[in-house]
């Protein structure tokens, strides 16, 4: 996916994205990080076509995003939002089956291929034996996995996740990031996500995009992008970076 | 699953009992077996009277109840709001106002009234939508805007009736929400448009199910949510408008019936829509039959009975919100 000179403003007073250009590489995990209000979620919403850029263009496989039909685009890219209302009286399987919508029409309802995709999505997210359970009966971590399962049922090449770990306990955060890693490594999904935790971003990403005030400050491999200078410039925090045999590359904030 | 089937069977049986009771009770009394015998026999003068007076009334009550209840389900789905009802938020009174307007000024357009009343209902619906959109269609805000729209159209209708009372006394009686003196002509109008609306409502049950998800989520599935909303709302307004034209404004049905129906058959619209139609038909037939038999020869309109039950019910729902 290619993003070229994107400018977006929610209120026409300031630019929430200001001339952003980047490339999303196929088959990699790309993570967007930055302080609150830096435009990282806005960038994700432009990529997922929820928001139209005022200036600039986004293209996928050399085709402008706006030229995709809604269902055609949903087969290419799926997105999971950080917060989702839980509908009443809905089983996991029913919700996940909504992910097959791009493949269905008034005349063509659920078929064998749809069933297989739903089973696959439930297997990946470890929800197969809970498929007939109501959403309301699930824990926060399980709920987040259900929304991911719905997105997986779309069988898109690109999966976007908007702050998937924000409302989860640490155990479920790691469980979820491991799931993301598996989806990328074993099923070759291209992942684009927004994360808050820098060490998680470093550990689970191939490519980092660091943003501030609607602009990309730095991007590249985690070990080269994350430096003392970038931390100071973007977050205003003094940080120490260490390479440890057991822990790998990690960051520790030490002051402001 | 069994609970759903059982609910259908019970409502079905109650419906049959209510129809037979309504047909055999009133100023002309008939026993059940006498009624069955007379049903297939020609020239029975009592049966002819029942056929001409009571059958149309029963059919109108059934279809108006079904149409208004399903209209409520659709509005609640589209507005993602458990308190939406065609009567309460002014769609019915919008349709009623246009109907009266037509009778008053363009009586020659009489056969177009369902379509024109539909436009009146659509106008009211669009106003409620636009005025409560900014607050994210919050249940309370929507009800407040709806009540204001309802008051406006009801006021306009009443002004018309008082202004024209001396000129055209039939107008007031046409608009009255009383099910007496319904003819087979009324029946054919209601059944035609009502069936179209009910079938269309069932055809979009899948969309109604999808609308429980947030807009951003369904959009990401490639679902054209605005288009679906518009179509579902149009079906809801059609159902409300046609029952207003034939049976007058009856509020609270679309609120009460779907709410109770969900308790029995759950939230899946595939089951909810047909069940609501049956339960709504039952409720209005029962309300109308009670209204005309409780204090004979006086009659209490079904809409009055619904208002008496519905008002407290709305308060109950508001307290739960």
What does the model show?
The complex is a heterodimer of chains A (256) and B (321). Chain A has a single domain (2-225), classed as P-loop containing nucleotide triphosphate hydrolases (Rossmann fold), CATH 3.40.50.300. Chain A has helices spanning 40-47, 70-76, 92-98, 112-124, 140-153, 170-187, 198-204, 222-225, 228-235; strands at residues 2-8, 17-23, 29-33, 55-60, 63-64, 77-80, 158-162, 190-194, 207-212, 215-220, 238-244, 248-255. Chain A is built from 9 helices and 12 strands. The model of chain A has no long low-confidence stretch (mean pLDDT 89). Chain A is α/β, with parallel strands linked by helices. Chain A has a 6-stranded mixed beta sheet, with helices on both faces. By secondary structure, chain B is mainly α. Chain B folds into 2 domains: 1-50, no CATH class; 60-174 and 183-320, Orthogonal Bundle (ABC transporter involved in vitamin B12 uptake, BtuC), CATH 1.10.3470.10. Chain B is built from 14 helices and no strands. Chain B has helices at 2-24, 32-39, 45-78, 91-105, 113-133, 139-164, 169-175, 184-203, 205-210, 215-220, 225-247, 253-265, 269-293, 302-320. In chain B, helix 12 crosses helix 13 (269-293). The longest helix of chain B has 34 residues, at 45-78. Chain B is globular and about 65 Å long. At the A-B interface, helix 2 of A face helix 10 of B.
């Amino acid at each position: 996916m290619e993003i070229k000179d994107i400018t977006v403003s929610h209120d026409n007073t300031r630019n929430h994205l200001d001339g952003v250009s980047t490339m999303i590489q196929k088959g990699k995990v790309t993570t967007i990080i930055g302080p609150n209000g830096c435009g990282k979620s806005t960038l994700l919403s432009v990529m997922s076509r929820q928001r139209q850029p005022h200036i600039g263009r986004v293209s996928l496989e050399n085709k402008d995003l706006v030229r995709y039909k809604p269902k055609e685009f949903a087969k290419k890219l799926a997105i999971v939002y950080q917060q989702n209302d839980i509908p009443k009286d809905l089983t996991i399987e029913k919700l996940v089956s909504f992910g097959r919508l791009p493949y269905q029409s008034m005349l063509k309802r659920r078929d064998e291929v749809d069933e297989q995709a739903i089973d696959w999505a439930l297997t990946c997210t470890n929800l197969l034996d809970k498929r007939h359970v109501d959403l309301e009966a699930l824990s926060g971590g399980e709920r987040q996995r259900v929304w991911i399962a719905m997105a997986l049922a779309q069988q898109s090449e690109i999966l976007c996740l908007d702050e998937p770990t924000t409302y989860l306990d640490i155990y479920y955060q790691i469980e979820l990031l491991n799931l993301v890693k598996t989806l990328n490594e074993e099923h070759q999904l291209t992942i684009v996500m927004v994360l808050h935790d820098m060490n998680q971003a470093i550990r689970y990403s191939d490519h980092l995009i660091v943003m501030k005030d609607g602009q990309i400050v730095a991007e590249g491999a985690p070990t080269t992008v994350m430096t003392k200078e970038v931390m100071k410039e973007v977050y205003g925090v003094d940080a120490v970076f260490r390479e440890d045999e057991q822990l790998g590359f990690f960051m520790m904030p030490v002051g402001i | 699953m069994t609970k759903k089937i059982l609910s259908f069977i019970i409502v079905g049986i109650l419906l049959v009992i209510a129809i037979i009771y309504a047909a055999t009770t009133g100023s002309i009394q008939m026993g059940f077996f006498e009624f069955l015998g007379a049903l297939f026999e020609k020239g029975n003068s009592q049966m002819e009277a029942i056929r001409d007076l009571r059958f149309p009334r029963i059919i109108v009550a059934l279809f108006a109840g079904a149409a208004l209840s399903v209209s409520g389900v659709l509005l609640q789905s589209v507005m993602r709001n458990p308190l939406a009802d065609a009567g309460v938020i002014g769609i019915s009174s919008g349709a009623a106002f246009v109907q009266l307007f037509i009778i008053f000024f363009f009586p020659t357009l009489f056969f177009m009234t369902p379509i024109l009343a539909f436009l009146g209902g659509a106008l009211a619906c669009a106003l409620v939508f636009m005025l409560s959109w900014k607050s994210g269609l919050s249940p309370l805000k929507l009800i407040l805007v709806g009540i204001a729209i309802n008051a406006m159209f009801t006021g306009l209708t009443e002004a018309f009736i008082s202004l024209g009372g001396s000129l055209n006394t039939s107008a007031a009686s046409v608009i009255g929400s009383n099910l007496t003196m319904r003819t087979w002509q009324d029946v054919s109008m209601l059944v035609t448009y009502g069936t179209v609306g009910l079938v269309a409502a069932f055809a979009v049950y899948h969309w109604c199910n999808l609308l429980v998800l947030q807009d951003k989520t369904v959009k990401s599935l490639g679902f054209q949510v605005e288009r679906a909303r518009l179509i579902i709302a149009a079906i809801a307004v059609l159902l409300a408008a046609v029952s207003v034209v034939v049976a007058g404004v009856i509020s609270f049905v679309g609120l009460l019936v779907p709410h109770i129906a969900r308790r029995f058959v759950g939230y899946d619209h595939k089951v909810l829509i047909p069940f609501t139609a049956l339960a709504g038909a039952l409720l209005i037939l029962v309300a109308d039959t009670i209204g005309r038999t409780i204090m004979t020869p006086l009659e209490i309109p079904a809409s009055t009975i619904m208002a008496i039950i519905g008002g407290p019910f709305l308060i109950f729902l508001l307290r739960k919100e």
